[in-house]
Amino acid sequence: MVKLAEILNPTEDAIGQVVDALLLGEVVALPTETVYGLAGIISNDTPLEKIFEVKERPLFDPLIVHVLDFPSLRDLVDIDSTLLDKVWRLADIFCPGPLTFVLRKKKIISHIISAGKKTVAIRIPAHPVFREVLRRSGPLAAPSANPFGYVSPTCAEHVQASIGDKIPYILDGGPCEVGVESTILDLSRKHFTVLRPGAITAEMIENVLGEKIEPYHSFITTDFSAPGMLKQHYSPQTKLRLFKQSVKEISESISQNIAIIYVSRKEAQLQSNKLEKEKNIFWFSEDGDLSEIAHNMFALLQRLDKINFDMICSQVPEKVGIGIAINDRLGRAAAKRKDMGR
Length: 342
Ligand code: TXA
Ligand code: MG
Known about the structure:
Distance between the termini: 34 Å
Structural class: alpha/beta
CATH class of the largest domain: Alpha Beta
Oligomer: single chain
Bound molecules: threonylcarbamoyladenylate, magnesium ion
């Protein structure tokens, strides 16, 4: 019989057990405030290679390093004092939290982490369980704990169901608060650029630095600035189609066996009386709050993917604040497989 990862409550003993495994070169799943991460120590190439193996991730896609605080971040990057000051100002406001900085790396960062790039992506996560592990283990590389290209995990059970047969432990920190991956901010270019939208928007960053931040553009998908940002990503097995106002916008004839997701219960009530199969109607939130939609989005997609629907049709929220990230993830999840950049 296949041995599945143990899901551990984050007691003192369990954290000790997980840290021991990490220090021996194992990879384990840990909760962050965004999504669950698949973590390994950065001082040894074996766990880094294991991360790529477990996720079946292409080697061109670099990893994010997670550190406890600003001094630990500073130790890993090779930047001048002006840029360091800007990172400090952002970290002071947004960290610990869902913001990842791309900066010129020091040589100690393994080429496996940076996938041959001169930069490294670093973030200071907020989840108290991840932080307790970091305090004892030192910096950890951690991509999202899902097979490459699939929907990111926002609870321990999602990790167990997808890669549970490949890792020894999952520390259970409950459902992830934010629900979408961190904002990736590239500070290694002349014009600071958001490579992946998240809970912290370009506008929020501009307000702190007082300078223009290039917001996220989809061209980034093709120029390999963030190699993991492929056009098709975050995808359930079930075909996904998106609509803005009404599900009728989807032109192809809709079979009975589809799941329809509305952004809110309110919206579902407004529109679903026209739809026959009420049991196929779902919603991301009670009243359309964007943070609530982000928090629930991946979990609902994972749940519906286990039911045998022919298709999932999802409404998309407005593109403001974290709504930009929600639109980005849903757009990639709905992209056709032939569009994949690999
Ligand atoms: O919220 C998050 O960021 C989660 C949690 C676990 O921390 N992590 C996460 O990692 O989403 P991952 O590996 O699934 O996505 C990392 C993204 C990839 O698209 C990768 O290409 C990009 O970060 N990335 C990593 N290093 C980079 C670098 N040096 N330059 C540009 N993009 C980079
Ligand atoms: Mg990922």
